[in-house]
Amino acid sequence: MKSFIILLCVALMGMNSCKSKKEVVKLDGMKWVLKVLNNKEVVLSDSENKIFILFDDIARRVNGRAACNRFFGDYEMSDSKLKFFPMGATRMACPNDSDWEIEFFQMLETVDSYKVKDKVLYFLSKENIVAEFKGLQDLAE
Q: How far apart are CA 83 and CA 79, in angstroms?
């Protein structure tokens, strides 16, 4: 009987510790398309063009498109904390949307956390939303 009570206590403690752990949201497997940047709706000169980001949770790398240039780099994530390291990017001339691109890269430097709700990814800086992305399941979209 003593063994049963001890086993029951261990099992209950294990269940409680599972509940207390925060569930980490996976960001990979989704194409995150930028919709709002610094409280402004993102509208590019070419409606076919999109600013987007893709996460590789295993390698802790990101890549995507910032208006017309491709970018890539590393990130750290734990719980709701998120930090991007300086990004590398192609250097194509983008006269029409260069302001969006510059603002996008500047925003990445300030991000310190994130949250996801209903397939919308929010980047935050000092608890303020600085970017809003819509998640697209099909990476080709």
A: 12
